[in-house]
Amino acid sequence: MARFFVAKENIGSTTITVTGDEFIHISRVLRMKAGDALTICDGEKSDYECTISSISKTEAVCSIVSCSPNLCEQDFSVTLFQSVPKGEKMDFVIQKSVELGITEIRPFFSARTVAKSHGKTARWNKIALEAAKQCGRGIVPVVYEPVEFSEALAKTSADLKIFAYEEEKEISLKSVLRGAQKPQSIAVFVGPEGGFERTEADAAKNCGFKTVTLGNRILRAETAPITLISNIMYEYLL
Ligand code: SAM
Predict the structure, then answer these.
(1) Could you report the per-residue pLDDT of 133-149, keeping only the tens digit for each?
(2) Burial class of residue 198, CB neighbours in 10 A (0-12, 13-18, 19+)
């Protein structure tokens, strides 16, 4: 069933008013009509099964049929810190990370980041919204403005801090995930196409990060986050 995200302030006791881009999606893209059924999520893990009561030029008023907890959110958070890769790869990383259950995405620029451009955050958050609608999420993961590496490092306060480092040869992701009691919050760092500098890995270690190897093969900057999040979900969710 078609899924939409509506701010809590638009949700009443018996009706929900849909406006803005989500209204345009309902009325012009999907050409939905009065009587059609849809699911509306408040972005705070509650789903409302509704039917459209009326559609005007600017809003759709929907009658609430039932409300239930969203079933697509895990009981721990995962924050992806991603060094901005070149081109459209970040679009792919965002879309797949949202499907895999990421909680928030914090892009950063490290020493070897090539794409040090700003101005893509609005577009990235649209990709996150579309992915959240498609896969049935109970929240819309936020993609933040890119910051410098040192600021990204300072922002992390997770229970489990993982730094994917291509020069790490001893410590495996599995040993770090298995070695920890199930954490409430996890932060993962992924470098750019050019990788991390040793000084960056050392700085991360000084902030409590565990450097891990993802195996002997070198994964692309857009493959590594998918690998990390998938393994985290395998270990703590599935
Ligand atoms: N320029 C690096 C090289 O050739 O060794 C590769 C960097 S890789 C394309 C981009 C990022 O993905 C790395 O900085 C790291 O965060 C992660 N990554 C890729 N393969 C990895 C591996 N085998 N072990 C740990 N991290 C890896």
Answers:
(1) 999 999 999 999 999 99
(2) exposed
Protein residue whose Cα sits closest to atom 2 of ligand 1: 195
Tokens of 25: 């999606």
Cβ of 165 below 6 Å from ligand 1: yes
231 CA from centroid of ligand 1 (Å)? 16
162 lines ligand 1 (CB under 6 A): no
Is the pLDDT at 180 greater than 90? The verdict is: no
The Cα 67–Cα 52 span in angstroms is 15
Q: Two tokens at 24?
A: 């345009």
pLDDT, the chain, mean: 97
Answer left, alpha or beta for residue 65, where phi above 0 means left and psi between -120 and 50 means alpha.
alpha
Say if pTM beats, i.e. exceeds, 0.85. yes
How far does the centroid of ligand 1 lie from the alpha carbon of residue 219, in Å?
6
For the stretch 49-84, pLDDT in tens is 999 999 999 999 999 999 999 999 999 999 999 999
Would you state the structure tokens that stand for residue 36, as one six-digit string? Answer: 């059609």
Start-end of CATH 3.40.1280.10 domains in the chain: 77-236
What is 3-69's CATH topology? Ribosomal Protein L25; Chain P (2.40.240)
- CATH no., domain 77-236: 3.40.1280.10
